Task: inverse folding
């Protein structure tokens, strides 16, 4: 298996037990994840950029949370409208978005 | 917020929609996650080592999957019995476990 150059994690508040609750999920994080998947496909980056949903990260008041590894960059209050800019600037340009980092 | 020195992701097969199915979940990945949480607490590493469950990573036949970032190390077929060694060797010792990497 090829390991990803970037791995984007989107909190969708999925509890390990399968229960789903919390702010990120309420704040349309599933649509956020889908937006990342679409952008990755459109840009032909499917083999080097992965996107995975996560369980609660414990900082719900800053959600929806998006983490980009291996950079260890944490974005807060991310909306679907921010996805294109994150992809363009950070993932393709190598410049993390200061305005969304917390 | 302090960012983690290590972030351990454990696939618990949580779908973004809340549905939960797949090999990792069937293979006791929830107990695996709990074992990491206990080890982290016992070693007093709670402020620098995070553990988060994830949705399906798409490589179910190699599950349960554990990823350690920012190292981008992918472990497969991880069991509860491996947790102490991963914590001791990789997280505390800085030496990823070759026998579990795929």
Result:
């Amino acid at each position: 298996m090829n390991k990803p150059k970037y791995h984007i994690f989107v909190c969708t508040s999925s509890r390990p037990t399968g229960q789903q609750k919390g702010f990120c999920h309420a704040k349309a994080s599933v649509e956020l994840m889908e937006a990342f998947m679409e952008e990755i496909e459109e840009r032909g980056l499917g083999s080097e950029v992965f996107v995975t949903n996560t369980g609660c990260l414990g900082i719900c008041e800053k959600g929806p949370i998006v983490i980009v590894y291996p950079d260890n960059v944490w974005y807060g209050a991310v909306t679907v409208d921010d996805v294109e800019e994150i992809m363009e600037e950070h993932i393709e340009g190598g410049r993390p978005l200061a305005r969304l980092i917390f």
The helical segments of chain A are 23-26, 29-42, 83-92. The interface with chain B takes residues 1, 3-4, 7, 9, 12, 14-20, 29-30, 33, 50, 52-55, 57, 59, 62, 67, 69-72, 74, 102 of chain A (CB under 8 Å). Strands of chain A lie at 6-11, 49-54, 66-69, 73-75.
